[in-house]
UniProtKB/TrEMBL annotation:
InterPro entries: Redoxin (IPR013740), Thioredoxin-like_sf (IPR036249), Thioredoxin_domain (IPR013766), Thioredoxin_ResA/DsbE_sf (IPR050553)
Protein's name according to its UniProt entry: TlpA family protein disulfide reductase
Iron as UniProt keyword: no
Residues of the signal peptide: 1-27
Species assigned in the record: Mucilaginibacter rubeus
Keywords: Signal
Length: 437
C-alpha cells in the first residue's frame, strides 16, 4: 500500500484559501515575504497573550530559515510561500504549522495550527511585528523587581485531575528571568521572561504548543500564578523556594511486575516488517527500547541524544528500538510522522508503531510493566534479554546537572552491559524467565 502524503499540495492550498490569500494578485504582482531580521510575536490564548521571539534569515522561501528563540535555545524551521502574500512554516517533526499572511505594513497575522487528522480545528491566532526583540516588556519600561527568584522552587498545581509533581529551576539577572519547569514526565525546555515589581512571567515556544507561566510574588516570598499550555488547559499553582526539593526517582517509577524479568512485544515497523524483541538481530545484544511519540517534545530531545549515541556505539553490540505511539491510530499516518522523525534525526535503529498515544493503551500492550507514566520511557535490556533499567521521562540539557547525571548513569550502565559476555559464551546461562502469569 502506498503511504499517504499528509502534507499534500491540496492541503497547503486549502490553508491559503482559508486565509484568503491564494492565487496571484493583479494589484500587487510582486510576492510578499517575511522581512529578514528579528521579530516579536504574540499568541492569543483565551484572554491571555503569550509572547515569543524569532529571527528570519534569507530573502525568499528557497533560502529562508525561521529560528525560534528561547533564552539560549535555537530551533530552526523551513519556510514555504503560499500564493503571493502568505507563508507556511511546518514545525519540523511535530504535526503542526504556523500559517501567516504578510500584511501591507510588513507585519504578520496568522495561526498556529494542528495538522493532525481529526484535530485540525485546534489553532491559536498570533500577530508578529518586525524589529522588536523584547519578550514581555518594552525597553525603558522595566520596573525594579522586589525579589530575586533564582533557585529551585517546589510547585503545587491545582486541578481536578492528577497532575505530576513539578519543580522550577530559575535564574534571574536584573529584570531578566530564565528557567525550566521539570516534572516526572520531562521538562518545558528553556523558558524566557521577566520580573517586574512583584510580578513575573515566563514563556516558551519551540515548535510544540506554546507555554506560559505567570504570577505574583507574595509578601512571604512564595509565588502564586497560572501555567498555560497553549491549545491545552491552564492550571493554577503555588510555589515555594526549597533548595532540597527533588522529584520522585525516575529510575523507580516504572518497573516490571512481580514474576517478570523480560519484556516482549511485536509491533509493525514503519518499513513494513514486524519488530519483535524475539527477532534474531536482538539476541545476545544489549537493547535500548525507547517509548516515544512525535508529538512529544521531550521524546524529540531524547531522540536527539539517543540517535548519535547509537550511531557511535552500534558496532559494540547494541541495538535500539523506537516504539512510537501517535495522535492518530493509523499505521499509514505513523509511517509519515515517524518517518519524518527518522529522516530529521538520522535514526538508524528500528522504529515500530504501537498505536494511539494513550498511556492506558501502552500499559495494555506492554503488560509486563507495572504502569506507564510518561512519554518518553527508556527501557534497557541486557544481553540475556533481562530488563536492567527503566527510566521515566527525560531531563533535557537545560536542566544542567540533572541531564549530566542522567548521561553519566546511562553511559556507565551501557558500558557495563556491553562488557558482559553474550549468553552463548557465558559460563552460566540463566533459564528463560516466564513472560506472564
Amino acid at each position: 500500500m502506498k503511504t499517504t502524503n499528509y502534507l499534500t499540495k491540496a492541503k497547503v492550498l486549502s490553508i491559503a484559501l482559508l486565509l484568503g490569500t491564494a492565487g496571484v494578485s493583479h494589484a500587487d504582482p510582486k510576492p510578499k515575504f517575511i522581512k529578514e531580521g528579528k521579530w516579536r510575536g504574540e499568541f492569543t490564548v483565551s484572554e491571555s497573550k503569550v509572547p515569543f521571539n524569532f529571527e528570519l534569515k534569507g530573502k525568499d522561501a528557497e533560502h529562508a530559515v525561521f529560528t525560534l528563540i528561547n533564552g539560549s535555545r535555537r530551533d530552526d524551521f523551513h519556510v514555504k510561500s503560499i500564493g503571493q502574500d502568505s507563508v507556511y512554516i511546518k514545525m519540523n517533526t511535530y504535526d503542526a504549522a504556523l500559517v501567516a499572511k504578510v500584511e501591507d505594513d510588513g507585519s504578520l497575522t496568522g495561526e498556529y495550527r494542528s495538522l493532525v487528522p481529526g484535530f485540525r480545528g485546534n489553532s491559536l491566532p498570533f500577530k508578529a511585528e518586525y524589529g522588536k526583540t523584547y519578550r514581555f516588556v518594552e525597553p525603558g519600561k522595566d520596573v525594579a523587581p522586589t525579589a530575586d527568584l533564582s533557585g529551585k522552587w517546589e510547585i503545587k498545581t491545582y486541578s481536578k485531575e492528577a497532575v505530576p509533581a513539578s519543580i522550577a529551576l530559575l535564574k534571574q539577572k536584573g529584570n531578566k528571568l530564565t528557567g525550566v519547569v521539570m516534572t516526572v514526565v520531562g521538562d518545558t525546555r528553556e523558558l524566557e521572561g521577566t520580573v517586574q515589581g512583584d510580578e513575573f512571567a515566563l514563556s516558551g515556544f519551540t515548535g510544540p504548543s506554546p507555554f506560559i507561566i505567570k504570577g505574583k510574588i507574595n509578601a512571604d516570598g512564595t509565588l502564586s500564578g497560572e501555567q498555560g499550555f497553549g491549545i491545552y488547559k491552564n492550571l493554577k499553582f503555588d510555589a515555594a523556594k526549597k533548595a532540597e526539593v527533588e522529584l520522585p526517582d525516575p529510575y523507580k517509577l516504572t518497573f516490571l511486575k512481580e514474576g517478570y524479568k523480560k519484556l516482549d512485544f511485536s509491533f509493525p515497523g514503519i518499513d513494513g516488517k514486524q519488530v519483535s524483541l524475539s527477532d534474531n538481530k536482538y539476541k545476545g545484544k544489549v537493547v535500548i527500547v525507547e517509548i516515544i511519540g512525535t508529538w512529544c517534545p521531550n521524546c524529540t530531545d531524547q531522540t536527539v541524544f539517543l540517535s548519535p549515541w547509537f550511531n557511535k556505539n552500534h558496532n559494540r553490540g547494541v541495538e535500539a528500538i523506537a516504539l512510537g505511539f501517535e495522535q492518530k491510530d493509523s499505521l499509514e499516518y505513523a509511517k509519515y510522522t515517524l518517518g519524518k522523525l527518522r529522516d530529521k534525526y538520522a535514526i538508524n535503529y528500528d522504529i515500530a508503531f504501537g498505536g494511539l498515544a494513550d498511556k492506558k493503551l501502552v500499559s495494555q500492550k506492554l503488560p509486563a510493566l507495572n504502569k506507564f507514566i510518561a512519554f518518553p520511557t527508556t527501557i534497557i535490556i541486557d544481553r540475556k534479554g533481562d530488563v536492567r533499567e527503566i527510566y521515566t521521562g527525560y531531563t533535557g540539557t537545560v536542566t544542567g546537572k540533572y541531564h549530566e547525571d542522567y548521561e553519566k548513569k546511562f553511559n556507565k550502565l551501557l558500558d557495563e552491559l556491553i562488557a558482559e559476555p553474550a549468553p552463548e559464551t557465558a559460563a552460566v546461562v540463566d533459564q528463560p524467565a516466564r513472560q506472564g502469569k
